[in-house]
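#dry-run=false #mode=assembly
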Amino acid sequence: MAAGYAWFLVLGSVFLCNLMKTFLSTLSSLLSKMIQKDAEQEMEMRTEIQGMKMEQSSISMMDEFAKYARLERKINKTTDKLKTHVKSRTAQQAKVKWVVNIIFYIAQAALMVSLIWKYYSDPVTVVPSRWIAPVERLVAFPTGVPGGVGITCWLVVCNKVVTLGFNVFNQRSQP
Amino acid sequence: MDTGGDTSEEATGSSMSAAQRRAEMRRRKLLLNSEDRLNRIVGFAKNGSDNNGASRRPAEPRFHLDLDRTEPWSPSSSSQRPSPFLPESSALSSLSHTATPERRGSPLPDCSEPAAAAVEDDVGALRQRLKGERAPSDNISGSPRRGLQNYLSRFDDAMKLRGQLASEKPTQDGGVETEEFDPFRVFRLVGSILLAVFVRIFVCKYLSIFAPFLTLELAYMGLSKYFPKVEKKTKTTVLTAALLLSGIPAEVINRSMDTYRRMGDVFSDLCLYFFTFVLCHELLLLCGSETP
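#status=ok
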């Protein structure tokens, strides 16, 4: 027969999975910041470029063309270096995000499969079968217990309800 | 010896002129050939084709990317749409801006932009040529020209859809997609919750719980017209773009998506109703106030 709080366990698991999904992007950006070691170098390059541009703006091109041109070349060289750096950082971020997503989806799939395996023959809850007529067989799938609510039906229902709840919450939290 | 020298000089002169003549002929042949080739592409026959009267418009329905259109689609209306060739230059320039919005802010040198711009320029030049050559339309043959026009219009639509997809991609990548809750949707959800509680407390002993739910959904169908209708922005996804390009009219796609959305709403109501019912049932069992 159904365990007392099986329905709550399934609901909690679905809730947890959806909550993790919401924070996936934050988690991946945090991880990429931790892995990335040369973030200061990028800041230094940006500061350097900014300083050089300010210096260049104070030089008159007509009067000190050589110095102006030399500064321009330095700015271009540093800008190219910065672009390469940004490109590699972006690629690394994308890779980390991809890995985090893959791990999450594997974990989620494993959790769902384990729940289905555990409650394959036990319904998560039981109600009188006449209450859920005429679809009692569909609702009870795969347990076959009359009046029982099967794990698959309950997973679908919980998933939908939790998603709705998160959407309402997100909509209210947005300005 | 002198006569031999003279003869050789004459032979050289004649061979030069023959070479020059051959070069000239080759050049003319190439020029003529290119024109012939282009004429064959646009449908001009070499010997003069049949005179078909006024230039024919394409009979196939055109794509239209206005997914918010609500008037019924008909082939006659498609032929009355403005010609795709009219605002070519402005459309192409706008296309070249919208088609590659993701490249505008890129720090990287845009090597592919000149290629795409060149392709679009060629298409535009071809369109201009078609437009200019359409006026003396006596010698135009119908089907190759129509085929080219269809190809160009599909290419145009594909570029526009690509631009729309690219512009909508950053919003989708920005996080979890949230559905919009208009007042009627909120009313439906709240109604489902309240009905589930009511049914669990008073009704479930007498009949199936799905009967009141079906009644509620029928009531919602009647009540929907009393709520302000919120126009939902149709998102261009890869699926809708593929369906559009495959020839399915946008109106059909709109109606299918509308039906699918309504089915989704009913499913959401059902899930929330059943969830609330089970939750109430478990809470009542926990409290021990009622035995089924």
